[in-house]
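[Meeting: bench + compute handoff]

Bench side (C.D.) handed over the final construct sequence. Compute side (W.E.) agreed to return the predicted structure before the next meeting so the bench team could plan truncations. Sequence as handed over:
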Amino acid sequence: MVERVRPRGQQQVIEFVPTSRLRPSARPTRSHPKAQIDLIAGSIRQFGFISPIIADDDDQVVAGWGRLLAAKQVNLKTVPVIRLSHLSRTERRAYSLADNRLAESPGGTGITSLLNWAS
Protein backbone atom coordinates (compact mmCIF):
# COMPACT_ATOMS: atom_id res chain seq x y z
CA MET A 1 0.00 0.00 0.00
CA VAL A 2 1.24 3.51 -0.84
CA GLU A 3 0.52 6.36 1.56
CA ARG A 4 0.30 9.80 -0.07
CA VAL A 5 1.13 13.05 1.70
CA ARG A 6 0.90 16.47 0.02
CA PRO A 7 3.26 19.02 1.58
CA ARG A 8 1.40 22.25 2.30
CA GLY A 9 1.80 24.85 -0.46
CA GLN A 10 3.55 22.47 -2.87
CA GLN A 11 2.42 20.49 -5.90
CA GLN A 12 4.59 17.45 -5.22
CA VAL A 13 3.12 14.49 -3.41
CA ILE A 14 5.29 12.42 -1.10
CA GLU A 15 4.46 8.72 -1.27
CA PHE A 16 5.80 6.10 1.12
CA VAL A 17 6.69 3.26 -1.24
CA PRO A 18 7.99 -0.22 -0.36
CA THR A 19 11.73 -0.41 -1.01
CA SER A 20 11.19 -3.67 -2.89
CA ARG A 21 9.10 -1.90 -5.57
CA LEU A 22 11.77 0.64 -6.58
CA ARG A 23 14.05 -0.24 -9.49
CA PRO A 24 17.38 1.17 -10.67
CA SER A 25 17.62 3.56 -13.58
CA ALA A 26 18.17 1.97 -16.98
CA ARG A 27 21.01 4.49 -17.46
CA PRO A 28 22.61 5.11 -14.06
CA THR A 29 24.54 8.36 -13.73
CA ARG A 30 26.64 7.27 -10.78
CA SER A 31 27.96 4.18 -9.01
CA HIS A 32 27.96 3.81 -5.24
CA PRO A 33 30.86 2.03 -3.54
CA LYS A 34 29.99 0.02 -0.42
CA ALA A 35 31.84 2.52 1.79
CA GLN A 36 29.56 5.30 0.53
CA ILE A 37 26.42 3.22 1.15
CA ASP A 38 27.70 2.51 4.67
CA LEU A 39 28.11 6.25 5.30
CA ILE A 40 24.62 7.01 4.00
CA ALA A 41 23.21 4.19 6.16
CA GLY A 42 24.94 5.73 9.19
CA SER A 43 23.36 9.07 8.37
CA ILE A 44 19.92 7.44 8.11
CA ARG A 45 20.43 5.77 11.49
CA GLN A 46 21.54 9.08 13.04
CA PHE A 47 19.09 11.53 11.44
CA GLY A 48 16.37 9.42 9.83
CA PHE A 49 15.45 9.27 6.17
CA ILE A 50 15.15 12.97 5.30
CA SER A 51 15.63 13.36 1.52
CA PRO A 52 12.99 11.59 -0.58
CA ILE A 53 13.84 9.28 -3.45
CA ILE A 54 12.93 10.78 -6.83
CA ALA A 55 11.23 8.27 -9.15
CA ASP A 56 9.16 8.05 -12.31
CA ASP A 57 5.65 6.64 -12.47
CA ASP A 58 7.03 3.14 -13.14
CA ASP A 59 9.01 3.04 -9.86
CA GLN A 60 12.32 3.61 -11.63
CA VAL A 61 14.66 5.68 -9.43
CA VAL A 62 15.72 8.95 -11.07
CA ALA A 63 17.72 10.25 -8.10
CA GLY A 64 18.53 8.68 -4.77
CA TRP A 65 19.69 5.17 -5.63
CA GLY A 66 22.43 5.35 -2.98
CA ARG A 67 19.86 6.42 -0.37
CA LEU A 68 17.64 3.50 -1.40
CA LEU A 69 20.50 0.99 -1.05
CA ALA A 70 21.31 2.45 2.38
CA ALA A 71 17.63 2.30 3.40
CA LYS A 72 17.58 -1.39 2.52
CA GLN A 73 20.80 -1.88 4.51
CA VAL A 74 19.13 -0.47 7.64
CA ASN A 75 16.03 -2.57 6.93
CA LEU A 76 13.59 0.22 6.10
CA LYS A 77 10.52 -1.30 4.45
CA THR A 78 9.24 1.95 2.91
CA VAL A 79 10.88 5.22 1.85
CA PRO A 80 9.50 8.64 0.90
CA VAL A 81 9.26 9.11 -2.88
CA ILE A 82 8.45 12.11 -5.04
CA ARG A 83 7.30 11.34 -8.59
CA LEU A 84 8.44 13.32 -11.61
CA SER A 85 5.20 12.72 -13.51
CA HIS A 86 5.28 16.22 -14.96
CA LEU A 87 8.67 15.75 -16.67
CA SER A 88 9.44 14.07 -19.98
CA ARG A 89 11.94 11.20 -20.17
CA THR A 90 14.62 13.62 -21.39
CA GLU A 91 13.87 16.06 -18.58
CA ARG A 92 14.03 13.25 -16.00
CA ARG A 93 17.42 12.21 -17.37
CA ALA A 94 18.65 15.82 -17.23
CA TYR A 95 17.40 16.11 -13.64
CA SER A 96 19.23 12.91 -12.72
CA LEU A 97 22.46 14.24 -14.22
CA ALA A 98 22.02 17.61 -12.53
CA ASP A 99 21.29 15.98 -9.18
CA ASN A 100 24.50 13.97 -9.38
CA ARG A 101 26.85 16.31 -11.19
CA LEU A 102 26.15 20.01 -10.66
CA ALA A 103 27.70 20.08 -7.21
CA GLU A 104 30.83 18.40 -8.62
CA SER A 105 31.24 20.91 -11.46
CA PRO A 106 33.34 23.94 -10.45
CA GLY A 107 31.77 26.22 -13.03
CA GLY A 108 28.34 24.65 -13.05
CA THR A 109 26.62 23.13 -16.06
CA GLY A 110 23.75 24.82 -17.84
CA ILE A 111 20.41 23.02 -17.86
CA THR A 112 20.28 23.37 -21.66
CA SER A 113 23.56 21.46 -21.93
CA LEU A 114 22.19 18.74 -19.66
CA LEU A 115 18.98 18.48 -21.69
CA ASN A 116 20.99 18.18 -24.92
CA TRP A 117 23.28 15.54 -23.41
CA ALA A 118 20.40 13.53 -21.94
CA SER A 119 18.43 13.23 -25.16
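W.E. noted at the follow-up: The helical segments are 34-47, 65-73, 89-101, 111-118. C.D. will use this when planning the next construct.
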